[in-house]
Amino acid sequence: MSEKKSFMEKIPFLGKSGKKSFMAEMRSGNKVYREKVDWATWKRRNLNLNGLGKFIWMILRFVIIVGIAYMILYPFFVKMVVAFSSTEDIVDNTVMYIPRQGSTYFIERSMLNMNYWTSFGTTVLLSVVVAVCQLFVACVAGYGFARFKFRGKDLLFLAVMLTLMIPAQTIQLPLYIRFANFLGMDISLTNTIWPLTIMSATGLGLKNGLYIYLMRQFFRGLPKELENSAYIDGAGFFRTFFSIMLPNAANMMITVFLFAFTWQWTDTTYNSMLMPDMDLLANKASMVASSIEDEAQIAAINDTACLLIIFPLLIVFLFAQRYFIQSIERSGLVE
Length: 335
Fold this sequence. Notes:
CATH superfamily of the domain at 115-286: MetI-like
Structural class: mainly alpha
Radius of gyration: 29 Å
Number of strands: 0
Largest sheet: none
Order of helices and strands: HHHHHHHHHHHHHHHH
Strand content: under 5%
Helix content: 55-70%
Number of helices: 16
Mean pLDDT: 81
């Protein structure tokens, strides 16, 4: 009887002498190439209904992805082309996607009309303050809804969700009256950062209910054994929250912070009502072309102003996109 061959000796492209090198390649993590598949085997595996279905789905998926990418990126591409066009290019019907003369006139004019750098600094300060306040409230409230049991918990959480359903326009007038005569006294907080800071710190900021919901869902997905272990070691509620729960929620916290920062950056509802005279990018964008009469130039300057407002956010999301992916992955944890 012939001697039985080992698994390594049966691999046709290795033989006996290649056993050690194959194992070394496997341990090193390098790619080990499989045996080549001949044409008959490939036809048997792929030229059937199952293979045809996979091929059609691959084509359909490619078309959908390209279509969605086109819908998202095309407006930015058009605005970028307009921003670097000259006054002659925007009225020239033969110019499509590449400016014939090219100029930075619209960029310079938009930045001048918006008082760009002053407005940029004020917008950054306001957005950071509001985002930090909303993040703190979302973490505390979300953890409380996720982990503690108390009377009226479901009813209170329903009230939080209702804040997302009530349009901001319905409470504009009461809010303005409250902050124009703060605490019933002759003290006006309008045209300062205090109205939005107070609203964000008390859980009434823009989209605050959504952030509380996100943090609640995330904390509910974390294993309770983390807290139980901390309680056994003698940690209290506050120490467990700040030392155990918050570090595990870092990715979701970054996601919530970026959402709050972005919404405040582009908000026109509260900014135009409570801070109409402040140098904010969202306020300046609405009147960036107020001194121009030519309709073509008005459209070009408006497009350029939108691009200048959105461009910093694109840079932020470019560097922070991995935190979004990680927070989505971690949100799938269950006990």
